[in-house]
Amino acid sequence: MPKKLTEAEMPTADYAFYGLVWAGTTMTDRVDKALVKAHDLPVSWFEVMLWLASSPDPVPASVLGNSTLLSRSQVSRVVDALQGRGLVTRTPSVRDARSVEVSLTPAGRAVFEAADTTRREALAPVFTDLLDAEDLEALGTVWRKLKAAAKAAQAE
C-alpha cells in the first residue's frame, strides 16, 4: 500500500486545498449528524432555513437556488419537504408572477432557532473553541477571496 504524503512532502497549495476539503466535509458531517439526531433536520434543510432566517422578506426560490450549495432541483425538493412539515410557505411573487417566494413559518423559525443552537454546539469543540479571533478573521479573509474569484469567473 502506498504511503500517505506528509504535510512536508506536499506542495503548500495542495495541503491547503486538502485541508479545506477535509474541514468542510468533517464539519458538515458532524453538524448533519447532530441536526438529524436532535431535530430530524438534515444539514441541507438547515442551509435553506438559514438563508430564509437571514432575510427579513420572503426569498425568491431562484435566489435560494443561486445562493445555497445545493442545486436548484435539490432546493426544490428541500422546500417541498420543509413545506410538508409546515416549516415554510410558498407564495406567488408580487414582483414576478412567474416566480414564487419562500419564507419560514413561525414554527419554522422556532425549529431553525433550536437547530442553530444545536449547530453551534456541535461545532464549538472542533471549530470555534479551538480558533481565536485572529484565526477566524483569517478564514473569513480566505473565504471572501475565494468567493470573489468565483463570482468574477461566473461573470466572464
Account of the 3D structure:
- With 156 residues, the chain is mainly alpha-helical.
- 64% of the residues lie in helices and 8% in strands.
- The chain is built from six helices and three strands, in the order ααβααββαα.
- A three-stranded antiparallel beta sheet has the order 1-3-2.
- β2 and β3 form a beta hairpin.
- α1 (12-39) packs across α5, α2 crosses α5 (106-123) and α3 (61-67) packs across α4 (72-84).
- The longest helix has 28 residues, at 12-39.
- The radius of gyration is 18 Å and the shape is globular.
Number of helical regions: 6
- Contiguous low-pLDDT stretches (5 residues minimum) are none
SSE series: HHEHHEEHH
Helix content: 55-70%
Record field, number of beta strands: 3
Secondary-structure-derived class: mainly alpha
Instruction: Characterize the overall form.
Output: globular
**How is the biggest beta sheet arranged?**
3 strands, antiparallel
Q: Report the oligomer.
A: single chain
Question: What Rg is obtained from the alpha carbons, in whole angstroms?
Answer: 18 Å
Strand content: 5-15%
Numbering strands along the chain, what is their spatial order in the largest sheet?
Answer: 1-3-2
| Mean pLDDT figure | 91
User: Could you tell me how far the N terminus lies from the C terminus, measured between alpha carbons in angstroms?
Assistant: 44 Å
